[in-house]
Every structure is written in C-alpha cells, then in structure tokens.
Amino acid sequence: MKILMVCLGNICRSPLAHGILQHIADTKNLGWEIDSAGTGDWHVGQCPDRRSIAVAKKYGVDIANQRAQHFTAALFDKYDRIFVMDRQNYADVIRLAKNEEQRAKVSPFLDDDIVPDPYYDDAMFEPVYAMVEERCQELILQLSK
Ligand code: 4NP
Q: Where is the catalytic site (predicted)?
C-alpha cells in the first residue's frame, strides 16, 4: 500500500500524518510506504515545521528527516491512495487529476471534517496531532483488512 498525505505547505499537517501512519504501519510490519506533499511549493526541500517535529517527538515519532515536496500530477500514479487535510487541498488536488481513476484515489483524510491548519497558532499542534493520530489508527484498521 502506497499512501500520500497532502496539505498546503507540507511542513505542518501532512508531515504528521505521514510520520504517524508510517510509524504505526512499521510497528505492524505492514510494508506500507507513506509519503507527503504540499499543494504549494514555498517550502520544497525544507524539513517539517519545528513545532510539528517537536510534538511528534514527544509521542515517539521522528519526522525530522522528512523534506517537503510539491504535489504534481505525476504523483497520482505513484500512490494507491491520496488523503487531503482540508477542502482547499481537495479542490487543488482534484483539479490536477486527468481521469476518474486518479480522482478515485483522492479522499479527505477525515471523513466529515477538516484538519485545521496550525501554522499560525502554536496551541493547535497538540490537538492536530491527536486528531491525526486517531485517524491514522482507524486507517490502519480499515486499509489492512
Ligand atoms: P501545512 O501548514 O499546510 O499544514 O503545512 C502551512 C504551512 C505553511 C504555510 C501555510 C500552511 N505557508 O503559508 O507558508
């Protein structure tokens, strides 16, 4: 299973989803490959935001070696599933899809909600971590059936 997590900058939310899901999948020896990307290209090549690195480290997940990449249409064919953090990410990714097969790979990370962008609010990194971690545990159960 190859999964791509997508947000805007690829430095706050999607690196957490990427790191947490990879960590759980590795613990269970599932052989999954998780990656992440941003619909914006401002942070390409950078490591995650220091606040995301810190909150992940606190819960035993190391995301410091990740580097931001830009979401491009070429990535549709590299992954089985693509999860987006909010509605704008969804619109931006879907706009690049060339056919129904590519569109069908794209889903909101949360079924009925968005993952709020914590970039401008230090206090949001803990709740975002908790939301993302809870959903990653569900995804492991749903997608490993
Ligand atoms: P992310 O957060 O999409 O969760 O990585 C953001 C990071 C950077 C910016 C916006 C959102 N930015 O505008 O630079």
A: 7, 13, 117
User: Catalytic pick from 12, 13, 135, 136?
Assistant: 13
pLDDT greater than 90 at residue 26: yes
Residues with CB under 6 A from ligand 1: 7-13, 42, 117, 119
Active-site residue, selected from the candidate residues 49, 51, 117, 136: 117
Pairwise CA distance, residues 60 & 75, whole Å: 29
Q: Could you give the strand order of the β-sheet that contains 2-7, starting from the edge strand earlier in sequence?
A: 33-38, 2-7, 81-84, 106-108
Q: Could you confirm whether 7 is annotated as catalytic?
A: yes
Phi, psi values for residue 84, rounded to 5°: -110, 145
Structural domains in the chain, CATH included, are 2-143 (3.40.50.2300)
Closest CA to 55 of 89, 17, 84, 25: 17
Strands 81-84 and 33-38: unpaired
Q: Quick one: pLDDT at residue 145? A: 79
